[in-house]
């Protein structure tokens, strides 16, 4: 079943509920940069998110260096943002 891309209005509303996230310049993704105490904390966080990503079959695009993790969420199948990105962002906000 195709995944619906959020409308601009839905996207705006979603961002209001995701204060730690920013809209990427092209409007097709949300991004957040996180800083942890050390690499172990950062990687432990990534492990928790990875397990959730597998569970919901929706995966982040992310970059990690030492204690920093930069996360980008977008829905390839929708060629933009979908409710799956919002849900995963809310999960992430709950485990940081
Ligand atoms: N993760 N972020 C993201 N976006 C997708 O479209 C996506 C995914 N993980 C798995 C997935 N799609 C597959 O279910 C589809 O490509 C079939």
Automatic annotation (TrEMBL):
Cross-referenced Gene3D superfamilies: Transcriptional coactivator/pterin dehydratase
EC code(s) of this entry: 4.2.1.96
InterPro entries reported in the protein's UniProt record: PCD_sf, Pterin_deHydtase
Molecular function terms, GO-annotated: 4-alpha-hydroxytetrahydrobiopterin dehydratase activity
One Pfam family from the record: Pterin_4a
Record bears the keyword Membrane: no
Key words of the record: Lyase
HAMAP family membership: Pterin_4_alpha
Family per record: Belongs to the pterin-4-alpha-carbinolamine dehydratase family.
Protein's UniProt name: Putative pterin-4-alpha-carbinolamine dehydratase
UniProt source species: Novosphingobium barchaimii LL02
Record lineage: Bacteria, Pseudomonadati, Pseudomonadota, Alphaproteobacteria, Sphingomonadales
